[in-house]
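In response to reviewer comment 3 from the previous cycle, which asked for concrete evidence that the modeling workflow produces usable outputs, we include below a single protein chain processed end to end. The sequence was submitted unchanged, and the resulting structure tokens are shown without manual editing.
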Amino acid sequence: MTLVTEAINPRTVTIDTLPTRAIVELINSEDASVPAAVAAVGDAIARLADVVVERIRNGGRLIYIGAGTSGRLGVLDAAECPPTFGVGPDVVVARIAGGYRALTEALEAVEDDAELGQRDIAELQVGARDVVLGIAASGRTPYVLGAIAAARARGAFTAGLACVHPSPLAGAVELMIAPIVGPEVIAGSTRLKAGTAQKLVLNTLSTTVMVRLGKTFGNLMVDVQPTNEKLRRRAAMIVATATGCPPDEARRLLEAAGYEAKTAIVMALTGVDANEARRRLAAHGGHVRAAVDQEQ
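The workflow returned the following structure tokens.
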């Protein structure tokens, strides 16, 4: 049976005869259908986010497993969580078939190695507190299926992300997310609409999890790690925006707080010192709003 992700798209069969601008327009029009496909699986994304939040609060991890484009998207999302949300690199973790070399080279054969997926799960010492999300546009990648089987055997919560349904991956996991984007612009090139859908799902999942974990105040990245001058300016801007204080005062508070934007915000809004601000944040699981609203 031909997978929908590998089927011929009737709208693009003459793409090679079109002028350049028409090709661009055709690709863009196909991409425009992706957000609706992701919106249709919003309930499943929300359910998985709730599971991930609970597991992380209890010391677990969110682990992405994928091959090729799917694996690279998982690595990208995991890599961006520490600087954006101030979590350690062991909170959102990713493994790609073939390891780091596969990030820049197409190592197609490794995706067929189910035992490699099992070994990667063992190397990560996956346990019952973890959530493992297998990412495979086709829903049938052996590396991902091997990893999911191993993770489930170790007691982890398992979920899948594919762009077909039903699929072997859907049958192997406890929760499936399957945005159906239809045939690709170029038949079988799942780096296109399927890849875009996977990126949107991962963005939505990890961001929702981090909001629920108190990594934002309103829509401000209050756990951003100011590791360079650009990010220090951003942190000062966040403090100023969150508190309404002048930029110079925001920078002073940020310095007094050891460049912890959350601590500086609580200091500004409650009048407490840095140590008390940290104590309040710790008492409320890192949620700025709760720390500020705490009774004196």
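The two ends are 66 Å apart (CA to CA). We consider this sufficient to address the reviewer's concern, and the full set will be provided in the supplementary archive.
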